[in-house]
From TrEMBL:
Residues 258-269 have a biased composition (Low complexity). SUPFAM superfamilies: L domain-like (SSF52058), Protein kinase-like (PK-like) (SSF56112). This is Protein kinase domain-containing protein. Residues 280-292 have a biased composition (Basic and acidic residues). It comes from Linum tenue. The chain crosses the membrane at residues 300-322. Residues 442-720 form the Protein kinase domain. Residues 377-400, 603-612 have a biased composition (Polar residues). Its main location: membrane.
């Protein structure tokens, strides 16, 4: 009997062990992989599925497991696109994520798996800021976010990252000072910060156990701490360092100086506090003590007089500005751009600084060879930065800018002009002469198309990359001031989404206003459906569903992520561009205010004639997110039928697509006859019915019955 019990116990143990070895992947990790598959635009990787599956048991490409838990995701250089909007935060036990050298865009997720030890997103197209929630990754050893388009400051979030050994933030657009918490990285061996716009000193790094430090091509200033010189591999070229010993305010002044020099009062805050002019522990000779006391007394009097003079001068300067701002009336149109009480002289001065000092963008499409940094001396550079920062901070009025934050998870409402200046600094600044050179003087062979606001030209940059130059016509350009145009540029420069055409820069010169965007080589969805037979033949049913999903995600981002929400106001198939992979990218996002500033009635009539305008707009209602949803429904109708939204060549009852189609969407027989003949029946009937149901809800005559774009996105995801 005892022997029998032992046999049963052994068999049970063996069965349990076998079940662990062959267990399916943890359901939470399966959900994470499914979500990630969708976020990455359904990559053609072995085993990957948007629904269900067993990543560990089926050995999905790039996935490593221990028993039923996914522990590593290694997809370096797999030509992946999409975003990391959803999925990555759901992993339970993952230790390593390597998505480097791909084409993934959007923002870095705020919520990350706390178990991560190695995390690499290097060599992608991520934008927005470095998330402050990195502080939760207490087990992190290696973090690589280099070669992206990240901007803003480095977050002060390193206090708990005591295991971090390698940190690479190079080749981005990061700015501001190094955060104090960097001094807590007691295990840090390698730090790469080159090719950013970081300012201030390197003092916070001097006590770290660094073996490799690269700070080249930034705006660091001040003396270099002597401890850093002992680092075996220390690279520092391309910074306005001041290698001389700087005097400290409490230190005795040289005998020949009878009053504080103007430059000493203008030093930026990060220069002060480097210690006295005497080397540490060195004391003045005994014979100088009495003289020093008398001298110090004189200096106190001089300093008091100087302080009084500075205060009086400040009052003389500030009071007229305060009175001017207090009496200024806000232009009603300011609401379109963010509600600033504009100081024209300040804006013109800022514009001059932008054109003279800003380097070329490190964005997707442009890096100008001729744009160079300032050539001032280190001291002048530091003083200018400090002065600009103070001026920017003092000019804030507390009103909200009408502009977009980074993608989901980073909702930010900007309340000061300082942010607008940062936005403009991150955008490329072009000159008329440069754009004339790149477009061959806006030659007809580079003409792409024309809308109610502008003409669009293709331009080839000096490095061979293509961009699209939108040249505002005289009417549109004349109805928006330079200041409001800069507010507009600031707003659209913050719109970042993989399904929205990326903004590359602007030009404002000699009365001309131009916007520069990435170039999409496959033209518009309108042309693909109605004019270009070659691309039309590539638009299978599944491709059309994915195009609808991409456009829906763009509108969802504008409506539900941007703060305040952005209404497109001109959504149509001609404003959906197709890149080389036939991925949908919505153009003219954020230009609604420009459209409103121009001939609103004319633009509305044109849209109405084209068949995209929601019914409520014809009765005097304002554009809203629901009117965008209606226009989206019309685009879906074009994808379904292959017909134009308005076609004057058809019979009178069929000219407006929506009027012809609306009564047939719920009849299965009529619906099958509506489908684009080029599809030749190659579509699932159930998928067709779902597609038609989404259209029907989007084109409801009453706006309150139309769905939010987040609902539309979820419905389309279920069809893939």
């Amino acid at each position: 009997m005892e022997f029998f019990k032992r046999v049963v116990w052994f068999c049970s143990l063996l069965t349990l062990f076998s079940s662990l070895v062959s267990a399916d992947t943890d359901p939470r990790d399966v959900t994470a992989m499914n979500s990630l598959c969708v976020s990455l635009n359904l990559p053609p990787l072995q085993g990957w599925k948007p629904v269900g599956g067993d990543p560990c048991g089926e050995q999905w490409q790039g996935v490593s497991c221990v028993f039923s838990n996914i522990t590593a995701l290694k997809l370096n250089g797999m030509n992946l696109g999409g975003t990391l909007d959803i999925g990555i935060e759901q992993f339970e036990s993952i230790l390593e994520i390597d998505l480097s050298n791909n084409h993934i865009g959007g923002s870095i997720p705020i919520v990350l798996p706390p178990t991560l030890r190695n995390f690499s997103l290097a060599g992608n197209q991520f934008n927005g800021s470095v998330p402050s929630t990195l502080s939760s990754l207490t087990q992190l050893v290696d973090l690589s976010l280099n070669n992206n388009f990240l901007s803003g400051g480095i977050p002060d979030s390193f206090q708990q990252l005591i295991s971090l050994v390698n940190l690479d933030l190079s080749w981005n657009n990061l700015s501001d000072l190094l955060p104090p918490s960097m001094g807590s990285l007691l295990s840090l061996s390698s730090l790469q910060l080159q090719n950013n716009k970081l300012i201030g000193t390197l003092d916070v790094l001097q006590d770290l156990p660094l073996q490799d430090l690269n700070v080249e091509n930034n705006l660091f200033s001040g003396p270099i701490p002597s401890k850093l010189s002992a680092i075996p591999n220390f690279r520092k070229d391309g910074n306005p360092f001041n290698t001389t010993i700087l005097p400290s305010p409490p230190a005795p002044l040289p005998p020949q100086v009878s009053s504080p020099s103007p430059s000493s009062t203008a030093q930026p805050p990060w220069i002060s506090g480097f210690g006295p002019s005497y080397p540490e522990k060195q004391k003045p000779p005994e014979g100088q003590k009495k003289e020093a006391f008398t001298s110090n007394t004189k200096k106190v009097v001089i300093a008091a007089a100087g302080t009084t003079a500075v205060i009086l001068l400040g009052l003389c300067v500030c009071l007229p500005i305060y009175c001017k701002r207090k009496n200024a009336r806000r232009d009603p149109e300011d609401a379109e751009f963010g509600g600033f009480n504009d100081d024209k002289s300040q804006n013109k001065a800022s514009l001059k600084v932008y054109h003279e000092e800003l380097g070329a963008p490190k964005g997707l499409v442009t890096k100008l060879d001729e744009q160079k940094g300032p050539e001032s001396s280190p001291k002048t550079q530091d003083e200018q930065v400090a002065s600009d920062q103070k001026r920017m901070a003092s000019s804030s009025t507390g009103a909200s800018l009408k502009q977009c934050p980074p993608p989901p998870g980073n909702k930010v409402t900007v309340n000061d002009e300082n942010q607008m200046n940062k936005d403009l600094s991150s955008a490329g600044v072009f000159t008329i002469a440069t754009l004339q050179q790149y477009t061959n003087s806006f030659a007809e062979e580079n003409y792409v198309g024309e809308g109610s606001l502008s003409r669009v030209y293709k331009a080839e940059l000096s490095d061979g990359k293509l961009v699209a130059v939108k040249k505002l016509n005289a009417t549109a350009s004349g109805q928006i001031t330079d200041e409001k145009f800069l507010h507009l540029v600031s707003a659209i420069s913050r719109i970042n989404h993989p399904n929205i055409v990326e903004f590359a820069g602007y030009c404002i010169e000699h009365g001309h206003k131009l916007l520069v965007y990435e170039y999409c080589e496959n033209g518009t969805l309108h042309d693909a459906l109605h004019l270009d037979e070659e691309i039309h033949g590539k638009l299978s049913w599944n491709k059309r569903v994915r195009l609808a999903l991409g456009a829906a995600r763009a509108l969802q981002y504008l409506h539900e992520v941007c703060q305040p929400p952005v209404v497109h106001q001109n959504f149509k198939s001609a404003n959906i561009l197709l890149d080389f992979q036939l991925v949908a990218k919505v153009s003219d996002s954020g230009l609604g205010s420009l459209k409103s500033s121009s001939s609103t009635s004319v633009g509305h009539n044109i849209n109405s004639q084209q068949g995209y305008t929601a019914p409520e707009l014809d009765s005097g209602s304002h554009y809203s997110s629901k009117s965008d949803v209606y226009s989206f429904g019309i685009v879906m109708l074009e994808l379904l039928t292959g017909r134009k939204s308005y076609d004057s060549s058809r019979a009178r009852g069929e000219q407006y697509l929506v009027r012809w189609a609306i009564s047939q969407l719920h009849d299965i027989d009529s619906l099958s006859r509506m489908v684009d003949p080029s599809l030749d029946g190659s579509y699932p009937a159930k998928s067709l019915s779902r597609f038609a149901d989404i259209i029907s809800r989007c084109i409801q005559s009453e706006p309150e019955f139309r769905p939010a774009m987040s609902e539309v996105v979820q419905d389309l995801l279920q069809m893939i």
